[in-house]
Structures are given as C-alpha cells and as structure tokens.
Amino acid sequence: MKSLILSLFITQFIFCQDLTASAILDSMNRVMTPENVKSTIRQIITTSRGNEREFEYEMFSGSKGENVLLRYTKPNVVKGNAILMKNHSDDIWIYFQRTRRVRKLASSSKNQKVEGSDFSYEDFSSGDTWKEDYDNKRLLDEDDKYVLELAPKPDVSTSYGKMIVVIRKSDFYPDIIRYFDKNIVHEKTLTMEDIRNIEGYPTAMKMTMVNHLEDTKTRMEIVNSTYNISYPDDYFTERYLRE
Description:
alpha+beta, 13 strands, 13-stranded antiparallel β-sheet, outer membrane lipoprotein receptor (LolB), chain A, globular, 4 helices
C-alpha cells in the first residue's frame, strides 16, 4: 500500500511538473469562463482618504465572457444605469436612466475605470483573450500554486505591460492576479477569497482589487450567482441595455 501511494504521488508530481504554461492557462480558462452567468454583486469602493461608496448591480455574461451587461440597482443615483461590453470590451455602450440616452465609448476606453472603481472595462473581459494577446511563461511554483507570467505579444495593444497569475493546482482557479503597467510598475493586485463550488464551478464570493499607485481599493461580493441560465440571441444589444 505504501509503495502504491508513493507511486501515485510521484506520478502526480511529474504530471504537475510537465504541464506547460499554455496548458495551465487553458485549464484556468475552462473553469473561469462558463458559457453563461448571472450574478448580483455588491461593490464597495474605498478612496485614498478611506471614504466608502457602495453600489449593487446585476451582471449578465454570455458567450464565455465575450459579452457582459451590467445593470445598477443601488444606490438610487445610479439605479437603472447600464453598461454593455461586447467583443471582450472592444465595444462599450453606457445607458443613463435619467436622460434615457445611450453613449458609445471609444475603443481606447477599455482601460478606464468602471463607475470610479479599481476595475477597468477590460478587467471584466474573459481570460480567453489572454491566450490571444499575451505570451505566457511558467514561473517557479508557490507550494500548491502554479505561477504564470503573461507579457503582451508584439504589435498587440493591451492595458497592461505584464501580469502575474497565481493559480491553485487543486482546481486551476486563480487566487491572485498582479497587474503591471506599461513601465512594468506593479499597478494593481486582485485577490480572490471565499472560493466555493457553485453548480460545478469554483467561484470567488469575494474579490478585492487594490490599486497600489492610487492607494484605493474595490471589493466585490457576490450576493447570488447561477450558471444555469441562457439568453436570447439579441440579449446583449441596445434593446436590453435600455430595459
């Protein structure tokens, strides 16, 4: 029995060592990008002075994160406002409930903050784009975690100069992502906490993005979430943005 256990341990160790950065990234994307998601999220923004602003919104994600719709429900000043991000945030529209008007943002806006938070529009995109836009390299493991370095491919325009992703070996779910700006200065850190299994998918119930350059942070808490949902073909369009 001892020899069998030792053999299984050695086999698992070799398997873990043989995984390439590309294979690890593919596995992470599979658990991070389900076909569809609907969540209610509470968001708390903490300013550099320690003041807090709290929001709540519904998030609808389709086509493995290619399209995302955010609809604010709290507080009343932003209730009814909505943001539509299509094609991995290459196309962004904002709907203002008070004026009932839709504004399309320039494609260069994807690195801007969403409602003053420390999350950019691009941060809401699925990790599938990381395989297309970034070269990946496996760094030394951290105990039971894989560590990947992602650097932009030549001639690809990205918001970040580099990312370091720390991924749990147990389920390929990331628990830390470090973002570096174009000068390779550590700009932001995203920490995933309270990771639970929801309908077969590991899900961080709490996510905190810390902006080291501005001394601010944004915490997102999932109130409820489901992956067992489908959307009409025209759901991620201006029609539903206005509802």
